[in-house]
């Protein structure tokens, strides 16, 4: 993978209660390997390819709407490497073509193995079996989070991000928050907006970053992937106001919570906040399929 040829823009959203909010548009880094996925994969892939495996193969894990699965499939296509996706839920075996994320990943060359939720939960056993079956393969954990991923996240920070007091990201598996925490300046704090209910996240992030400069905030809206009318309304209003698309699983929930915190006076006057737009926009098609089936307001840009 190459360093991106574009300068990633930082866009001002507003100043409210004397607090300035900006959004770094990492979603623009690549059309299909967007946001934090690009950086989480960067050193994983480059290190693997530098070892010159005879028959390269990338294996990874994810749910039916996973942004990570989508990014790995696109990466496999662009680098000419076969990809195997271990997908949670064997019930999808017969109808995955109806799922927009999996359909696109398949078009990008990914081969799937659908596993029961029970065996999916036991990743260590699954990984061992896969490594025996495919000894040359690069097996990337769910969400792409590992030490290489954390190292890659440093590139979301630059000279231009030094002036901010807070760096914010949505948190799934914690790699992005860990990278921001590890590479933040001394005077910067990281806020991670938890999208999943997972009490082990605090420790996993600390293990990866080795710094206690971050705080986790609940932003799960009743559970991972839960999309209600309030979040859809917020995403549509945000787009109308700022012409920036947000996804309903990660960035929409982070911005909803963060803006409410600003409005309710959580931050001191004069604070400058930088939120990371970590992409995930591929998930909107799947969310809209669901919303359409329930006859509810769609996300529309
Ligand atoms: C759009 C988006 N934002 C945020 C995250 C959370 O990143 P992490 O798993 O590193 O916590 C993800 C998952 O990779 C994601 O797809």
What is the oligomer described by this structure?
Answer: single chain
C-alpha termini separation: 30 Å
Characterize the biggest β-sheet: 6 strands, mixed
CATH architecture of the largest domain: 3-Layer(aba) Sandwich
Tell me, rounded to a whole number, the average pLDDT. 96
Give the number of helices: 11
How many runs of DSSP E, i.e. beta strands?
10
The ordered H/E elements are EEHEHEHEHHEHEHEHEHHEH
In terms of per-residue confidence, which ranges show pLDDT below 50 for 5 or more consecutive residues?
none
Supply the CATH class of the largest domain: Alpha Beta
Tell me what you see in this structure:
- With 301 residues, this protein is an alpha/beta fold.
- The chain folds into two domains: 10-31 and 149-293, 3-Layer(aba) Sandwich (Rossmann fold), CATH 3.40.50.1100; 38-144, Rossmann fold (3-Layer(aba) Sandwich), CATH 3.40.50.
- Helix content is 38%, strand content 18%.
- It has eleven helices and ten strands.
- It has helices spanning 36-50, 67-79, 100-107, 117-121, 123-133, 147-153, 175-183, 201-209, 229-242, 251-263, 283-293; strands spanning 10-16, 19-24, 58-62, 83-88, 110-115, 138-140, 166-171, 189-194, 214-218, 272-276.
- The strands form two sheets. A six-stranded mixed β-sheet has the order 1-2-10-7-8-9, with helices on both faces.
- Helix 1 packs across helix 6 (147-153), helix 2 (67-79) packs parallel to helix 3 (100-107) and helix 6 crosses helix 7 (175-183).
- The chain is globular, with a radius of gyration of 19 Å.
- The two termini are 30 Å apart.
- The relative contact order is 0.16.
- The mean pLDDT is 96.
- It binds pyridoxal-5'-phosphate.
- Pyridoxal-5'-phosphate binds next to helix 1, helix 2, strand 7 and helix 7.
């Amino acid at each position: 993978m190459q360093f991106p040829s574009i300068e990633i823009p930082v866009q001002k959203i507003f100043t409210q209660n004397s607090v300035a909010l900006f959004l770094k548009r990492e979603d623009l880094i690549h059309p299909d390997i967007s946001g934090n996925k690009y950086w989480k994969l960067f050193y994983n892939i480059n290190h693997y390819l530098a070892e010159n495996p005879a028959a390269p193969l990338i294996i990874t894990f994810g749910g039916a709407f996973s942004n990570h699965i989508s990014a790995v499939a696109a990466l496999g296509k662009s680098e000419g490497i076969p990809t195997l996706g271990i997908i949670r839920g064997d019930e999808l075996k017969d109808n995955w073509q109806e799922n927009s994320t999996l359909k696109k990943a398949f078009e990008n060359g990914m081969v799937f193995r659908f596993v029961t939720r029970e065996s999916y939960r036991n990743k260590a056993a699954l990984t061992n079996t896969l490594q025996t079956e495919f000894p040359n393969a690069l097996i990337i954990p769910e969400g792409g989070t590992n030490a290489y991923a954390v190292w890659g996240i440093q590139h979301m920070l630059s000279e231009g991000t030094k002036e901010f007091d807070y760096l914010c990201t949505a948190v799934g598996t914690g790699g992005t928050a860990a990278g921001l925490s590890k590479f933040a300046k001394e005077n910067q704090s990281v806020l991670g907006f938890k999208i999943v209910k997972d009490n082990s996240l605090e420790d996993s992030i600390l293990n990866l970053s080795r710094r206690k400069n971050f705080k986790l905030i609940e932003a799960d809206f009743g559970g991972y992937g839960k999309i209600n009318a309030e979040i859809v309304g917020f995403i549509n209003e945000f787009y109308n106001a700022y012409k920036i698309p947000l996804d309903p699983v990660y960035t929409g929930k982070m911005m909803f919570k963060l803006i409410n915190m600003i409005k309710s006076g959580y931050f001191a006057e004069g604070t400058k906040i930088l939120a990371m737009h970590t992409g995930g926009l591929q998930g909107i098609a799947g969310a809209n399929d669901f919303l359409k089936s329930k006859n509810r307001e769609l996300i529309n840009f």
